[in-house]
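User: I'm writing a short report section on ligand binding and want a predicted complex to refer to. Could you take this sequence and shikimate-3-phosphate and write out the structure as tokens? A short remark afterwards would be nice.
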Amino acid sequence: MSGHDSAPQPMQASKSPGLAGAAKIPGDKSISHRAFLFGGLAAGRTRVSGLLEGEDVLATGRAMRAMGAKIVKEGAHWLVDGVGNGCLLEPEAPIDFGNAGTGVRLTMGLVGPYDFGATFTGDASLSRRPMGRVLDPLRLMGVQVAARTGDRLPLSIRGPRVAAPISYRVPMASAQVKSAVLLAGLNAPGVTTVIEPVMTRDHTEKMLEGFGATVSVETDAAGVRTIRLEGQGRLSGVADFVVPGDPSSAAFPIVAACIVPGSDVTILNVLMNPTRTGLIATLTEMGASIEILDPRSSGGEDVADLRVRHSALKGVTVPAERAPSMIDEYPVLAVAAAFAEGRTVMQGLEELRVKESDRLAAVAAGLAANGVEHVEGPESLTVTGRPDGKGIGGGTVATHLDHRIAMSFLVLGLAAEKPVTIDDAAMIATSFPEFTGLMTALGAKLESLAE
Ligand SMILES: O=C(O)C1=C[C@@H](OP(=O)(O)O)[C@@H](O)[C@H](O)C1
Ligand SMILES: C=C(OP(=O)(O)O)C(=O)O
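Assistant: Sure. The structure tokens for the complex follow:
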């Protein structure tokens, strides 16, 4: 059951002694969704290890089961027996994606071109988020859409007899939109082309190739990427698919170690794909001590262990071009900035307004509730820090069904002068169910205030 159905679970974080020890980060959310989607589509078996068992990913697994894939857990592995490209079955009931934007948008792309109907629902957060960004290209392929309110969930789609392949320039920096169009192209005859003016996480392109699709990527001198996918090809299961640790989850213990005096922690098995490492680059520019240990390859991706020690941080200007490589990390970067000397300026944040919450507004409100000086612009955030943490804390943060707001402000409380309370920790289970246990084992003072 997803967290939004249960009573709110308030939680409090308090000033903690130096964090210490090693922590293994659970699997990457983006790659885990795709392991279920592509494994469920490909012919034959995919054995997945390291899968993130968060609610978002499990919702994608249920969706693929509803369309014919067999998915079971065996020991530490997930076994996915796929239907074969082009052979998904019509789901008998509406598919509930809970809080999962990636899950619903990629699945709509995947099933859009099928000559059957599918209905998608989600929680209050997901039902507020824009789906037109995925539905517009699907419409160009011949998909019909029935939505009650302006391309929001709940909505139903129905594919044409034969979908038309398209060439589509993605209008905003979004890996979800890029991926939805490519996945739709899997079931359209001919070549589907996606033009990506700004590079976003490349897991779909890389993984589709690993599952046997014919995909090519060309990058021009200006960095514009053209991705071509041949439709209706055969996809085959991957015998041993390994999911690396999620850098967007690692972000919380990393920032906590930077801001809690005396900390020295090692975060194990973190995905270091360059489309995901913007936070590490930014913290390093701010003066954080982050050592990259044992860089290696795992499942076709770069991974490393990261040793992070408490550091005197200074404010920086984060360029807008870096936003796609750290899009989910801005809330916790704002927390790091609250303890940095001087001002940290974050720009190019328009996409934050359409995440699980309006993250710019939610972060600004959380900072305001906890005495952190900041200015919220239409697409920017400036935070003025206090390295000694004096005057920070004491507030209650509204999390708006947003896991990253919840975890970020708990991290703030670990270094603040006064405790920080969040109104609801339930949504943390969507992406990082191990968060509380992992942080507590490192020495973080977290206390549930639930009845
Ligand atoms: O493709 C993905 O797996 C994701 C893409 C990003 O969303 P957008 O494509 O909306 O930027 C990111 O915020 C999300 O958590 C995961
Ligand atoms: C934006 C996020 O996820 P999604 O879009 O998949 O809900 C996130 O995990 O921060």
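A remark for your report: The chain has a mean pLDDT of 97. Residues 56, 100-102, 328, 355-356, 404, 431 surround phosphoenolpyruvate (ligand 2) (CB under 6 Å).
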